[in-house]
Each structure stands twice: as structure tokens, then as C-alpha cells.
Specification:
By secondary structure, the protein is of the alpha+beta class. It is built from three helices and ten strands. It folds into two domains: 29 residues; 144 residues, no CATH class.
Length: 175
């Protein structure tokens, strides 16, 4: 009975470790991003939310899938592995008011190529993309860590919604 219990425990631990190491989007055994730090604010239609968490992970490149980009997520709440791996989980959390986040995709040269909002304060669609008025400053971008700041230009508006972001982040990059 002890051998069976020990074998079952070892099998249970092995299955649990395998399940927690799978990313929800593609089933590959990738490491989940470690929680980093963020400071700053996200403002939508006059309501300002402070951010405190930053996550970074390697994703297939926007321009060339063989050259990875880095996705940075700054948020007001901690995110679990499922939410980090699944864009639709983050969208649902935002619709429910459980998440206020700004996502930045940075190419291999350290230049932003895309952004996305996850926020319930928008009336209608949420903005994504880039603006030439936005200011991105990278401090560290060495393949292990991404550190920098990103600030929106003045008077950003999207379908009648006003918005602004001013965030500074530091996170280890999960590969």
C-alpha cells in the first residue's frame, strides 16, 4: 500500500508539473513569465488606474515568425499562467472589470511594433497599434530583461474615447 501511494504521489506530481508548464495558447512547454514590476498609470475617459505588475515573454515575430518579438504586459493585477498565455482570457477579464492592462510588442531591435489595451473603460472598441506621438524609451533590452518606459502623446482619442498611458516597467523575459 505504501508503494502504491508513493507511486501515485510521484505520478501526481509529474502530471501536475507537466500541466502547469504547458502554455494555453499552443501547448508547448514554455516557462510562464515571472512577475516583474511596473509603475505608472492607465487613463481611459478620465478614470486613472495605477499599474504595479509587468510580465514579458518571447512570442513569434510580427514581421518574421522566426525572429521572436517580446510581449510586455503591464497591469493593475497579478496574472496567472493561463491569463498570460491566453489573449482571450485577458480580454474576458477586462470586459468583467477584473483587469486593466496595456500590452506592448517589441521587435528584436527594441522598437515597439504593436500595442493593445485590455480595459473596460472604453465605450466600444479599444485602440491598438502605434502613434508617432507616443514615446518609448528602452533602458535594458538584452534578451533576458526588458526595462523601459512608454508614454502616450497628448490628447489621444479613439472613437470618442480619450486615453493615456504613462508606464515604466522591468521584467525578466520568459522564453
Amino acid at each position: 500500500m505504501i508503494a502504491l501511494t508513493r507511486r501515485a504521489a510521484i505520478l501526481g506530481v509529474a502530471l501536475g508539473l507537466a500541466a502547469t508548464s504547458l502554455m494555453a495558447t499552443d501547448g508547448k512547454a514554455d516557462s510562464a513569465p515571472a512577475e516583474g514590476k511596473a509603475v505608472g498609470t492607465l487613463t481611459v475617459n478620465g478614470k486613472t488606474i495605477p499599474v504595479a505588475f509587468a510580465y514579458a515573454r518571447s512570442v513569434p515575430g510580427f514581421a518574421d515568425p522566426n525572429v521572436p518579438d517580446i510581449q510586455v504586459i503591464v497591469s493593475d493585477v497579478p496574472l496567472d499562467a493561463k491569463a498570460l498565455a491566453d489573449e482571450f482570457a485577458r480580454i474576458d477579464m477586462a470586459k468583467q472589470g477584473k483587469l486593466h492592462a496595456f500590452e506592448i510588442t517589441i521587435d528584436a531591435s527594441g522598437t515597439p511594433v504593436s500595442t493593445a489595451w485590455r480595459h473596460d473603460g472604453f465605450n466600444g472598441p479599444m485602440p491598438s497599434g502605434l502613434s508617432s506621438d507616443d514615446v518609448f524609451t528602452k533602458t535594458v533590452f538584452d534578451g533576458k530583461t526588458v526595462q523601459g518606459s512608454y508614454k502616450s502623446g497628448p490628447n489621444d482619442e479613439f472613437f470618442g474615447n480619450t486615453y493615456a498611458f504613462d508606464v515604466t516597467f522591468n521584467a525578466a523575459i520568459a522564453h
